[in-house]
Amino acid sequence: MPLKVMLIAGEASGDLHGGKLVEALRELEPELELFGVGGDRMAAAGMELYYHVNDLAYIGFIEVARHYVYFRRVFNRLIKVVKSRRPQVVVLIDYPGFNLRFARAVKKLGISTFYYIAPQVWAWGQGRAAKMTGFIDQMAVLFAFEADFFARYNIKTTFVGHPLLEGMEVGLSGQEFMEKHGLTSSQPLLALIPGSRNQEVRNLLLPMLQTAERLRRLHPDLQVAVSQAATVEPQQLESLVADCPWARVVKADYYPLMRYATAGMVASGTATLEAACADLPFALLYRVSPLSFAIGKQVVKIPNIGLVNIVAGERVVPEFLQDEVAPAKLAPVMERLLYDAATREAMQQKLAGVRQKLGKAGASEKTARLVLEQLYLHQTETI
Asked: In 3-state terms, what secondary structure has residue 223?
């Protein structure tokens, strides 16, 4: 009887890290059956997809609530898959709104559960950590402080480091990157990184472009490049950029853009850690519906929302939330990052400290070994 692992990742960053995990599982145990929810990277690594992350990528309480019926249908179908295929372990990757409920349901079916990339309950719901003890068998976490936090709730937790340290290959020299995209290294370059979800692009790209336009009126030499994630609808991004012929769209060179840009505006999320690893000085932007934000303010109990600031334990990069995502507020900050070397260098020194806190490379293999250990243990217990 083949060994089976079901994996659930609900967004682009989960697919990125999940793809590396699937590769590691395949290398260690080539005959595994791997199936579930993921994206292009997980599929390319050898996982059978029931749903694509593009089908599930919504953020904000209200935005998710609007799609409740659809999410319920997805949930019920995946439970049927669990019942019919009986995986030895279900691996939940980030995406806590869905995955915590799914973990509880599959645990009741006698399936072993493993959580990779911990729900940020230390920020928005510490009471949930105590409840997780009943349906999460083991966790692999990306930050050392998370291991200490979950240990207080008697959840078996291992700090594996961050999988970002395994990748982020640039592949191009600075000159090659600039020539490829019609840019020059002799002028400052502003990177606009509006996120990997269509919703984020709708909320953030226009004020980013308006800020860039304001800066270009003051500094006509400023170059602007917009990162286009593979998970974003091209037509949506292109329609927003259409009135900005001075903005270059970068589709395939996300990491080189971060590495060679002078400064950037970055959507909140994993991209902030990627920017830190790339040594990119930046401002963090976050905007959802007003009601979702109001609910979130009541739930989140920490002073910073950005991962890079949470890991640092201080405000390393400025955070612009909701109405603060406005050209009049963003432009002065970005002007200093672009044209004041001392301001850039001061931020880069603090970003280097963030990189050090991400641990050492090898998170995917470490996590794969933990999953397989749990799989073999569960198999032995059920024989």
From this structure: strand
The first and second tokens of residue 369, run together, are 């070994």
Q: How many CB atoms are located within 10 Å of the residue 92 CB? A: 29
Q: Render pLDDT for 56-94 as a digit per residue (tens, 0 to 9).
A: 765 555 555 666 788 899 999 999 999 999 999 999 999
**Which of 91, 97, 94 minimizes the C-alpha distance to 74?**
97
> Do residues 136 and 111 make contact, with C-beta atoms less than 8 angstroms apart?
no
Which parts of the chain fold into alpha helices (H)? 12-28, 40-44, 61-66, 68-85, 96-108, 121-124, 126-132, 144-151, 174-180, 198-218, 234-241, 254-260, 270-277, 290-299, 307-312, 327-339, 341-356, 363-382
| Predicted confidence (pLDDT) per residue in 329-352, tens digit | 999 999 999 999 999 999 999 999
Domain 4-161+362-382 has CATH 3.40.50.2000: yes
pLDDT tens, 364-375? 999 999 999 999
Q: Where are the domains of the chain?
A: 4-161+362-382, 174-356
Distances (CA, A) of 116 to 8, 85, 194, 368: 10, 22, 25, 10
Long-range Cβ pairs for the range 125-130 (8 Å, 24+): 125/299, 126/301, 128/100, 129/153, 129/155
CATH topology of domain 174-356: Rossmann fold (3.40.50)
Decide whether 4-161+362-382 matches 174-356 in CATH topology: yes
For the segment 123-175, what is each residue's pLDDT rounded down to a tens digit?
666 678 888 999 999 999 998 889 988 988 989 999 999 988 887 778 899 99
Task: Say how many CA atoms lie within 13 Å of 26 toward its Cβ.
Answer: 15
Q: For residues 137 and 104, what is the distance between their CA atoms, to the nearest angstrom?
A: 11
Whether the CB-CB separation of 77 and 54 falls below 8 Å is answered with: no
